[in-house]
Amino acid sequence: MIDMVSGNIFHCRKHSWPAEEYISRATLQLLDFDSAAPPRQAWRRRLNSHANILKEFSVTFMEALKMMRLGVRLWSYVREEASHGRRAPIDPFTRESCKPSASQGVPLGGMGSGSISRGFRGEFRHMQIIPGICETSPVMANQFSIFISRDGGNKKFSSVLAPGQQEGLGKLGDQGLSSWNWNLSGQHSTYHAVFPRVWTIYDDPELKVSCRQISPFIPHNYQDSSLPSAVFVYTLVNTGKERAKVSLLLTWANSIGGNSHLSGGHVNEPFRGEDGVSGVLLHHKTAKGNPPVTFAVAACETQNVNVTVSPCFGLNDQNDVTAKNIWDTMAQDGTFDHGNFNTGSSIPSLPGETHCAAVSASAWVEPHGKCTIAFSLAWSSPKVKFLKGNTYNRRYTKFYGTSERSAAHIVHDSLMNYKWWEEEIEKWQNPILNDDSLPDWYKFTLFNELYFLVAGGTVWIDGHSPARDNQSTLSQNGHNSRIEDPTKIKVTAATVHSKGNVVIEHETCNGYEDGDGNGDANGLNLDDENGDGGNTESHNPLQLSTLLDQKPDDNEDVGRFLYLEGVEYVMWCTYDVHFYASYALLALFPKIELGIQRDFAKAVLSEDRRKMKFLADGNCGIRKVKGAVPHDLGTHDPWHEMNAYNIHDTSKWKDLNPKFVLQVYRDFAATGDMSFAVDVWPAVCAAMEYMEQFDKDGDGLIENDGFPDQTYDTWTVHGISAYCGCLWLAALEAAAAMALRLGDKPFADKYKSQFLRAKSAFEEKLWNGSYFNYDSGSSSNSRSIQADQLAGQWYVASSGLPSLFDDHKIKSALQKIFDFNVMKVRGGRMGAVNGMYPNGRVDETCMQSREIWTGVTYGVAATMILSGMEEQAFTTAEGIFTSGWSEDGFGYWFQTPEGWTVDGHYRSLIYMRPLAIWSMQWALSLPKAILEAPTINMMDRTHGSFRGSDGGIVRKVAKKTKCFSNSVFHCAC
């Protein structure tokens, strides 16, 4: 195997990267059938590209001094959690044994069933089968290999299809992986990615090989997108003069990463399935009482493709069949003994012993002939167990049952359905990929940032109840044949409250027991509404409407979804960050987004009086305050023990409640789902009324309390702040608009009036003539230019609401951010730094003020698009691509961090917030429901354009790329 022509495709400000710069035109033409050729708009790398070690951030001496007490308390907390066998949600002290490198690629599988990443050079790594645990090191036994024989066996070639640049390979006399041929240099092999698909091209002069990796990530498909599987389709084109026998080999270790393969008790079992699908099941016995896992590796036998297996081999000479044995057999014969299918299950592995399996698929390819060979990998871990909580069935069990052996059925269906998956993926992606008005870097980065919804530690469960044994049966084809009865909602108390044409009931019901049982009160239960309703005065926090008398039919129940803030910050659905990331879910899986919002709406009305210690100041408080939006849904007992974050008391944060109101209104406006609006309206009322305590002077505007009381949790705020104040103004507007849609005119009038007072105070105290000051205090950074100062304006513009400020003020502030936060940092090639002094120096008040946050940069770019500043928007966002994704950047592809410093030191890899790039696409193509939504008159209005006090008109953005169909946003969840 050799590689292709040289050339660097990633030159700054270059807007297209034709595949011909990596693959010869002749090879592309030969592969131009059956989707074997990569698209023109793909992220590309050569397999021999250097995977440099990434540089992690470090605090300065002064920052360390300021955080010393916090560090001591955090260290003590991390040790306390470890003594109970638990991982602290934030642990900066423990380092991974495998140092992060620029080696990531597109992950495998759908959402919420565990994930396995595959680096661009071919290694399988970053296994996250058990929720919250990520094993980063590659499992080197997991490989594809190729064996080629020509001229009656006189010409032979064999190699693992990954460059052999791993530590420990190449030992002489080894019976393990070093005995294999690692002949691929990677120079003429290239990787092309548009999530969720990958094309790896091996451009040999006499044999063109394309490996197409396909995962079932299909927007608006809530069944296949939950499947833990991937398909690898090899397309072979024989350009030589002789007939060639080509054998492909997939080897897999019975391991879930780390040292799990050595724990013992693992069993391998060959199987023959329907439609020629055959392979091996690898039954893995997990440690610490975690649910077991079964892998299925298989290939599809056809008239021209012969599939055989070696069901169990080891990695040293103490095994009956060694890695060297199976390699020698394949090199000699290109196939295994067909009798291996009849060997039955292996003896369970002993502690310290590794069990691996191999599946071979071989075919003859005539001169100038073509052949396709398809493999599939699936894994089944049907139950999710949380350390302090319940066990749940994963989403896919709704269709395949709860047996670990369902992996065999999943792998079969994957091989039967992958072509349809590809058709659906292309229907979704092609309108954007073929839009010549968009730069190529934006197109593939837009899709590739979605990797996080698979590799970001996602959990998707079936329904709302804990798992029960024997709750499903399988039909003969392995699909779930039962339709489970929906959980009954038992009404024990109800009050009826009429708002216009909407009749709302408040219900209380019995829920789950507290999973922890400690403390002086029970934990939260998001299926339990409290009868006292949150102590509101003019509005009962009402929970369910008579429109929801009966639960939607089972086809409409998409279960419950969790995703981590990041693999280093192990908290589920961190809400201040979800504010940025949620655009991706709303655009692609709106029912999941509405489900998350319902969970938080119920949480607003709940209280958990168990005590917890806040590490920033050492004080104690209750875990969850009624009326406050929780920071997260928990770590070890999600939905029941919330607020795993314990640095600050987030009940005093100023951004969470406004962000809840803004997201709820945006989602309601986009979907037009009235049942959702009625369901969450009581929580909106409670969240707004809760915030009134922070208006200290009665001007209608909330004040910050002199500590980092918002998502920038090391960046102190004094008095009125641009970030929280702008969010509050937007929340007042959104709450008033939603009240009008629901017929609650008194509520709408109250917050419209408060908006006008608050807006006047905000502009008077923060507007300095060109932008809004960081805060109204007198600290050294009070006049800093904050990149995120218009976060509230971003949301009202995304939701079809009137602009918060006059058009010239919005554009002036955005231009200031562009000129200073963007262009004064390495010429605009890094994104937008969070804080910048008006003299052009980076604000180094704290760690976060000097960082460039990837998701915030995308959000700023979206705000620019909504304000008619598209050139500045794409230049701003391109800095994230240049620094994070380009070949000349830092190497953060498929592991985009929370942020980096101007010298390229990252913080928190594989982070949720960069999904905010989908807010740019949202801005470019506002859904029809938002464009046609009823308007709210917060100020004077003329002909559908909202007119500010000075008469300036804020234009509405015209629709562009049609990536959202009109029917998408009319779901009833």
UniProtKB/TrEMBL annotation:
Entry GO CC: membrane
Family of the protein in this entry: Belongs to the non-lysosomal glucosylceramidase family.
Domain of life: Eukaryota
Catalytic activity: a beta-D-glucosyl-(1<->1')-N-acylsphing-4-enine + H2O = an N-acylsphing-4-enine + D-glucose
Keywords (A to Z) from UniProt: Glycosidase, Hydrolase, Lipid metabolism, Membrane
Record flagged with keyword Zinc: no
E.C. number: 3.2.1.45
GO biological process: carbohydrate metabolic process; glucosylceramide catabolic process
Function: Non-lysosomal glucosylceramidase that catalyzes the hydrolysis of glucosylceramide (GlcCer) to free glucose and ceramide.
GO molecular function: beta-glucosidase activity; glucosylceramidase activity
Domain Glycosyl-hydrolase family 116 N-terminal: 105-421
Secretion signal span: none
Glycosyl-hydrolase family 116 catalytic region domain sequence ranges: 559-920
Lineage, top ranks: Eukaryota, Viridiplantae, Streptophyta, Embryophyta, Tracheophyta
Name this protein carries in UniProt: Non-lysosomal glucosylceramidase
Region annotated Disordered, chain positions: 88-108, 509-541
InterPro entries: 6-hairpin_glycosidase_sf (IPR008928), 6hp_glycosidase-like_sf (IPR012341), B_Glucosidase_GBA2-typ (IPR014551), GH116_catalytic (IPR006775), GH116_N (IPR024462), Non-lysos_glucosylceramidase (IPR052566)
